[in-house]
Amino acid sequence: MLNVVATLVDEAKFNIKEDGISLRAVDPAHVAMIDLSLKSSAFDSYKATESEFGIDITKMIDVLKLAKPNDIISITHDEEKNKLILKIANITRSMALVDTTGMVEPKVPNLSLPAKVVISTVELIQGIRASEAVSDHITLSTTPDGFELESEGDTDAVNLKLTKDLLTELKCKENVKSLFSLDYFSNMIKSAANEKTVTMNLGTDFPVKIEFNIANDNGEVHYLLAPRIESE
Amino acid sequence: MLNVVATLVDEAKFNIKEDGISLRAVDPAHVAMIDLSLKSSAFDSYKATESEFGIDITKMIDVLKLAKPNDIISITHDEEKNKLILKIANITRSMALVDTTGMVEPKVPNLSLPAKVVISTVELIQGIRASEAVSDHITLSTTPDGFELESEGDTDAVNLKLTKDLLTELKCKENVKSLFSLDYFSNMIKSAANEKTVTMNLGTDFPVKIEFNIANDNGEVHYLLAPRIESE
Amino acid sequence: MLNVVATLVDEAKFNIKEDGISLRAVDPAHVAMIDLSLKSSAFDSYKATESEFGIDITKMIDVLKLAKPNDIISITHDEEKNKLILKIANITRSMALVDTTGMVEPKVPNLSLPAKVVISTVELIQGIRASEAVSDHITLSTTPDGFELESEGDTDAVNLKLTKDLLTELKCKENVKSLFSLDYFSNMIKSAANEKTVTMNLGTDFPVKIEFNIANDNGEVHYLLAPRIESE
User: Fold this and answer.
1) Is C107 in a helix, a strand, or coil?
2) Which chain C residues are closer than 8 Å to B95 by Cβ?
3) Which domains does chain B have, with CATH numbers?
4) pLDDT, mean of residues B45-71
5) CB proximity A63 to B under 8 Å
6) Which residue out of C117, C122, C159, C166 would a mutagenesis test of the B interface target, given it has the greatest number of B Cβ atoms within 10 Å?
7) DSSP per residue over B26-49, as a string?
8) What tens digit of pLDDT does each residue of A185-213 get?
9) Between 20 and 30 A from C120 (CA), which of A46, A96, C29, C130?
10) What angle do CA B20, B12, B222 make, to 5 degrees?
C-alpha cells in the first residue's frame, strides 16, 4: 500500500475508520490522483476509531523494511504524544506524525470513459520498458479488436499490440485514443507489478483510470492520470 | 579476521608466533581498540617463527577475494625481499609489507565492568538498523531484568528491549548505562554478523567491551569502545 | 555476439550473406581488431540476401534485454524506411540504422605466430583479475613446458603459471614473450566468459590472436591485439 502511494506523494493523510483505511491524494504537479482503500480484513487484527494521520511515506517504508519475513508488526497511535508507535519483533519505534492541515483531499471527478481493458501487468511493463528507450510519451488506444500502446521517437518507435484474445477483458464499441506522460504511467503500472492484471478505462483525449487490487484483494487502488494533448 | 580488523584500521601490525597470530590496534581517532587472536588451529597447516608483519588490510582482502570456494590459499614470507607470497590456485601474488615503525601497540586498559550480557547478533543488528534512521548515538543499558538499546532523535525514537529470557546470558546486579557513537558500534557488531551471539561488558559512563569468536572458535575478537558523555 | 563486438566498438557494419553474418572492426585507438562470423544455423530461421547494416551495438543490446527467457525474437529489414524491425513477444520495435559510409573494413594482417595455447577461460580470468590490482600491463609467454601470465607493479607482482598438463593444448618449440595492455586483454577474455576455453596464438613482441567459438559453435570470434614494446 505504501509503495503504491509513494509513486505520487512523499507525505499523505490517511483516513482511519472502524472498517479500514483510505487515502486520496494528487501529485504535486496535479497530473495524477490516487484513491486507495484497505479493508480491516487485510490486517491480522484491527481496531480503530475514526481519525486522520499525516504520514511520511518514505520514512514509514524504511521502518517497515526492518521487519524480517515472519515478524508481526503492530502499529498503534499514542494520542497523548500524537505519535505512531510501531512494534517490530523486540523493537519499539516511535514516529512523529506529519501535519495534515495543508493536505486538501481531492474530489474524484465524475468521468464517463467508454472503453475498458483488463490486461496482463507483465505484458504492459514489457511495453513500458521498450518505450522508455524511445520517448517520454505513450499513446494508449483501444478498438473493438484490441489494445495498443505506442511510443514514437525521432528515429525509433515501439508498438505493443494485444488483440482481443490476448486480453483478459475488452469492452470497446468505438475507437478511443489518448496520449500520456510515460514517466507517470510507468510508475503507476510498476507499482502493480505484483498483481496479475490491471484494469484501464480509456477515452479519447481523456484521463486513463487504472485500477488494481492489493493485499490479497483486501485493498483497491484507483489511479487517474491526465492526458497530454498532442500539439500539431 | 581481516574484515574485523578493517572496521578500525587500514593497515595493521600482525604479531606472528609459533602457535598463532595476534594483533592490537586503535582507530585513528582513538575512540576504539581491537585486540584479536587467531590460533594456528584455524589453518589447515601453520608453521612460523616469531615475527611482525605490517599488512595493508584492504589490499589483502581484495587479493583473497580471488580465491574460488575450494581453492587452498598459501601465505609465505619471502625473507630476502621482505614480501608476502600468496598462492591461490595457479596464481602467485607477491605483496609488499607495510612499514611497522610508526605502529605503536596500544595497552589494553584494566577495566572493571560490572554488567555482562550475551545477546543474539541478529537482534542487535536489527536494533542498530532501526537506530540509524533516528540518531547517531545510542544508549546501552542493563538492569537485573534485561538489556536495552535506545536511540533518541528530535521527533522519533527507537527502543530495543530484551528481557532476561530473551538473552543468552545476563549478569547484572545494579543498573548501568552508557552512551556510544552509533557508527563505531554498528561497524563492530556488523563485523560479527556471521557469529550467533556477541558478549558485551558494560558499566555506567564506561567503555563497552565487545567479544566474539571467529574462525570456528579458533579465534577471539575483543573490541573496546569509549563512551560519549551526554552533555546536559 | 553483440556483447563481444561491444568490447571494441559502439557502432559496427554487419555484413549479411545468404549463409550468415560477419563483421570486421578495429577499435578507435587502432590497438585491437575483431573478425567475427555467425552461421545462419545459429538462428531458428534465417533468410537474407547480401546486404550491409550499420548498427548501434549498445542500443541493440538494450532492446534485446526486453526479451524474457522463452521469447522468440524476429529481426527484419524494412527496406523502404531502411530500419530494422525487431519483434519480441507482442512488441514491435523499429530501429534506425547507422550510416556505414565512414566505416572502413580493416584488412586482417597475415601473421605467423609460432606458439599456440588452448587454455581454460576461468583460469585466465582469475589471472587477469589478480593482475588488475597490480599493473595495467601483462606479459604473456609460452615455453615448451607451459604458459605464463605476468604482471609487475612497483612493489607487488602477479604470476599465473600453467604447466603443459594444466593446458588443453600447447604447441611451442621456442620460448615466446609479448607485453600487452591489460585493459584490452581483459575485455576480450571476459567477453569469452561463457566459453570453456580460448585459443591464443603468440610470438615475441608480436600481436596475440585470441580465438573462441560463440552461439553453440555456430559462430567464431577472432581478436587481434597489438603488443606494447617494453621501454628500457
Assistant:
1) coil
2) 155-156
3) 2-96 (3.10.150.10), 115-225 (3.70.10.10)
4) 95
5) yes
6) C159
7) E-TTSSEEEEEEEEGGGSSS----
8) 999 999 999 999 999 999 999 999 999 99
9) C29
10) 60
